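User: Could you go from structure to sequence for me? I need the amino acid at each position, not a summary. Structure tokens:
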């Protein structure tokens, strides 16, 4: 065992009311897992973590722990918090390598559930419902599973072998996976119901890059972050790169670009440093890699030679801070390529080919507290409902939605409750 993992585990005070669990969105029972680990019961510790959160091994790599579990650890008040992420990683890595699915109950075997999308939301629903004995099929538009965990978060932050291992575990639990199958493009939600699926879950995420809507955005040297991160190897960005935006995705782009041959990367933000939304640690890593930050600059136009920038001034509108360019300050900033990293919104391929699934004004799917959409039998959670969030937030709400799907099928199809109301 890594020395620092043991040392850190021994620093845990075994608090009667562990603040770390309260700070974790999925209330990970980390204190109890640490106790089991130190008592040489690592498999039990792993089961505890996995049963609570099947994506524990992902979360410990990518969660913003400083605001969640570690940020709440009592030891952090006077010094370093217990390094919960490292301990969780050690336990969960071990557990997944020995994991064998337990035999599931057989009363749900005739109940088929379709899961559209294999990101954190789809994976969570699949793990929970497979454990309950449902007959699950995952439909994934990409050639591999994992959603943003595979096609967005870079390898140096989340190794792809973890997604492969989770996928293998799902398949061993009886889950069927149909890759390269975009629901709404060819097969539709109606086809799924026709073929006997009792519930359909949409965990399709947000994959449509937001545009800046400025001149030059369609030029050959301009790209969108989410498209670049999907497969950086196929891009020739040249040596000097401008990244527009200062969130976590922008940091991933900058750090990935350095690892693919860019020599100078400039992160351009239209406001001051307090507008940087990326985690402090990601900003620090980007700086270590060599990224330079240009604050209070607004991109006015993209050209083949680079980006025309203007100084910006910040003003408030209805309590919200905004930036506008100061006329007369425009100047061309020379770069080989530009990547726009200003967030993503949902695609409409399913709702535009299916009747009865309402969306809100921002294009996100409308659901009630149980993840029920406006169409009976169709559930949704994850980014397609909340907008861009985090892996652990997708797990949190999807756990609840999995229970809601279970309750719906049990009441309507197994108990035959004719008074059962959808909404
Ligand atoms: C670059 C980047 C870095 C990030 N870094 C972090 C991080 O460090 N920590 C963190 O917690 N969160 C991070 N996030 C956010 C996190 O990844 C998301 O919040 C999370 O993946 C959302 O899960 P999801 O299941 O809702 O959607 P997704 O992960 O987006 O998965 C949706 C899946 O549905 C599939 N799909 C979509 N439409 C269809 C269709 N019609 N038919 C079939 N399949 C379809 C997609 O191909 C995809 O596989 C990051 C996001 C990005 C973009
Ligand atoms: S799931 Fe995330 S926030 Fe919760 S204990 Fe694990 S690393 Fe911390």
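Assistant: Here is the amino acid at each position, in order:
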């Amino acid at each position: 065992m890594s020395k620092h993992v043991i040392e850190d585990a021994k620093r845990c005070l075994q608090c009667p009311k562990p603040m770390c669990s309260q700070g974790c969105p999925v209330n990970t029972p980390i204190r109890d897992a640490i106790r089991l680990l130190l008592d040489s019961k690592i498999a039990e510790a792993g089961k505890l973590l996995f049963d609570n959160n099947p994506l524990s091994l992902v979360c410990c790599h990518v969660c913003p722990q400083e605001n969640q579990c570690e940020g709440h650890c009592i030891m952090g008040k006077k010094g370093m918090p217990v390094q919960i992420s490292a301990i969780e990683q050690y336990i969960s890595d071990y557990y997944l390598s020995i994991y064998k699915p337990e035999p599931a109950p057989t009363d749900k075997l005739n109940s088929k559930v379709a899961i559209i999308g294999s990101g954190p939301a789809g994976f969570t629903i699949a793990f929970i419902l497979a454990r309950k004995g449902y007959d699950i099929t995952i439909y994934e538009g990409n050639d591999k599973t994992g959603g943003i965990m595979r096609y967005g978060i870079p390898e140096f932050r989340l190794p792809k072998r973890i997604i492969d291992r989770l996928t293998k575990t799902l398949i061993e639990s009886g889950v069927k996976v149909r890759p390269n199958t975009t629901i709404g493009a060819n097969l539709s939600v109606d086809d799924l119901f026709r073929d006997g699926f009792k519930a359909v879950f949409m965990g399709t995420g947000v994959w449509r890059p937001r545009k800046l809507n400025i001149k030059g955005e369609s030029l050959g040297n301009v790209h969108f972050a989410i498209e670049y991160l999907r497969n950086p190897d196929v891009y020739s960005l040249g040596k000097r790169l401008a990244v527009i935006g200062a969130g976590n995705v922008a940091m991933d782009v900058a750090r990935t670009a350095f690892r693919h041959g860019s020599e100078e990367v400039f992160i351009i933000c239209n406001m001051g440093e307090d507008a940087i939304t990326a985690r402090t640690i990601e900003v620090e890593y980007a700086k270590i890699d060599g990224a330079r930050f240009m604050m209070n600059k607004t991109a006015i136009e993209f050209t083949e030679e680079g980006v025309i920038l203007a100084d910006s001034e910040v003003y408030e509108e209805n309590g919200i801070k905004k930036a506008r360019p100061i006329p007369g300050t425009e100047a061309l900033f020379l770069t080989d390529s530009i990547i726009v990293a200003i967030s993503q919104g949902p695609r409409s391929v399913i709702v535009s080919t299916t009747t009865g699934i309402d969306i809100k004004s921002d294009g996100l799917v409308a659901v009630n507290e149980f993840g029920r959409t406006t169409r009976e039998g169709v559930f949704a959670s994850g980014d397609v409902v909340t907008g861009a969030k985090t892996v652990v937030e997708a797990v949190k709400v999807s756990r609840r939605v999995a229970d809601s799907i279970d309750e719906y099928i049990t009441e309507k199809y197994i108990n035959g409750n004719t008074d059962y109301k959808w909404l």
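One structural detail worth keeping in mind: The radius of gyration is 23 Å.
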